[in-house]
Amino acid sequence: MSNGSMEIKQISGHRGGTPGSGVSRDYDVCKLVDTTTCIGCKACEVACLEWNGYEFRETTFDNTYQTMPDTAWNFWNLIRFNESTDDSGNMMWLMRKDQCMHCADPGCLTACPADGAIVQYQNGIVDFNQENCIGCQYCVTGCPFNIPKFNSATKKVYKCTLCSDRVGAGLEPACIKSCPTGCLHFGSKEDMLDLANKRSAQLHANTSYKNAGVYDPEGVGGTHVIYVLHDKDNPEKYGGLPKYPAVPFFVKMWKGPLKWLGGIAMGMGIAAVFGHYVRYGPKSVDEHIDEGSQR
Amino acid sequence: MSSNIVVRHGTDLREGEVVRYTLVERMCHWVAGISYLYVLATGLALFTPYLYWLAYVLGGGPTIRFWHPWVGLVFVAGTWWMHKLWADDMHTTKEDIEWRKTVKDYVTNNDAKVAPAGHFNSGQKQFYWIMFYGASILLLTGLVMWFPELMPRKAHWVLPPVVFLHCVGALATIGAFIIHVYMGIFFVQGGLHGIIFGRVPTAWVRAHHPLWLQKAIKENRTRVSTTSFKGDR
To answer: Is residue A12, in this structure, part of any structural domain at all?
Structure first.
């Protein structure tokens, strides 16, 4: 682990065992988005643009609280707004902060053919290195969350970095800093899961959201962005959050069996024709057959 | 130029030679062949990290990502051109069925037992159709993969199977291509010379494509001319 160097080895002026030696904790990072306390203020959208240096894009008004229909190459953080009606006819406004989920099993990275264009750090952040990106958009093919976005001018793909530059310097992501309701939290995955479970227990105990729960999908090995949802069984109604996200089957087949079977088949094919040549050699043409022919 | 050379179908012909491929046929073959070599090399670079060095050799990842689809279109155009030239010669005949029964003798150089072949033998025809249908699959899937940014989100589910199919189609053509190159350059010597310069010895035709010789004479592909000497220098 990158933080292994900061574990205590020994301390000065101390008799006996070293307190704190071998003590470590999980340093994988996680963002917790509590949709039950999000008010859709979009401060996180602005903070994301400010920190990453992008102009605010033109918004589109669709008679709702939606800023624009989708994230974009220069707009990585979007509050998804949906009106929902529960079984007893109560209307709800659902707000979900949409951004890269930083999957433990990232489909974008699996699909990417470019050397070093996508990196997964030990702390769980999945980051794009645009200097190595070739613009093929296989990452779009591999992502179950519709996150990587292509810039037609630069021919590169962009997405949320989980503020890897800030996190690397010991800071929280920009969106976290801006949240006025405290619906955004940042810490280790273990701590955030603990907090998320406590929050859903609180919702069970004190509110009518008896189906509240944590969204940390197993299909992609868990994510480094997790949600608390009022209704964990229907994530789709939060702006299309997939219920069972996974790296697409055909991406797994393509990057798994097809890749190595294809490689073996090509190698064997070349070996086979070489072997055939060594055994049988070229066909010979009997020149004498030409004699007395109808030239 | 020696007066011993006549020109038939854009091909210099000496005594005892036959125009195996006309100038147009050769150009068509090499448009398809050279464009295929490029899409093969760049496609393999994107297929496996072990061959990504091909991307650097050919100008870098973004460069090959830009050119691969365009050169792919050239390859498809080449195969369609070839289809126009050769499709009539590529249908299975009853001679092909006989030839296939003796394919084992053909492969093991037991040539006396091999059934006679026409302009193309059955194996060449099979290679042709693999490349023709392979090109069709690669074109259809490749067009989808070219501009995914123009696809609506709801259509994104087609991308994984399309990419998968593109790879399967490519691998099928690669298998056929390995055999094609081996046959043309090594196994059936004179084949490469024939597809570059167009001419092969009459004895070569008698050995490999005996049923075609009469037709070649009729098409004025030999030194025997029953009609005119227009092509003579």
So the answer is: no
State whether A73 and A139 are in the same domain: yes
Q: Indicate whether A9 belongs to any domain.
A: no
Q: Which of B48, B108, B163 sits opposite A280 (nearest CB)?
A: B108
The Cα–Cα gap between B174 and A278 comes to: 22
User: Rounded mean pLDDT of chain B?
Assistant: 92
pLDDT in tens, B90-123: 999 999 999 999 999 999 999 999 999 999 999 9
State the residue range of the domain holding A81: 25-247
Domain of residue A213, CATH code: 3.30.70.20
Number of CB atoms found within 10 A of residue A182's CB: 9
Same domain membership, residue A57 and residue A198: yes
The answer to whether B49 contacts A113, with C-beta atoms less than 8 Å apart, is: yes
How many CB pairs (< 8 A) connect A and B?
A: 144
Chain B interface, mutation test: which of A285, A287, A290, most B Cβ atoms within 10 Å? A285
* Cα-based torsion angle of the residue sequence B204, B209, B214, B220 in order, rounded to the nearest 10 degrees: -60
Question: Whole-angstrom distance between the N-terminal and C-terminal Cα of chain A?
Answer: 81
The pLDDT tens digits of the residues spanning A133-189 come to 999 999 999 999 999 999 999 999 999 999 999 998 889 999 999 999 999 999 999
Residues A184 and A273 in one domain: no
Within a domain: residue A261? yes
Residue type at B67?
W
Instruction: Give the C-alpha separation, B194 to B216, whole Å.
Output: 14
Tokens of A105: 């099993």
- Tell me whether residue A156 is in a domain: yes
Residue type, A252: K
Tell me how many domains chain A contains: 2
Distance CA A60, CA A45 (A): 15
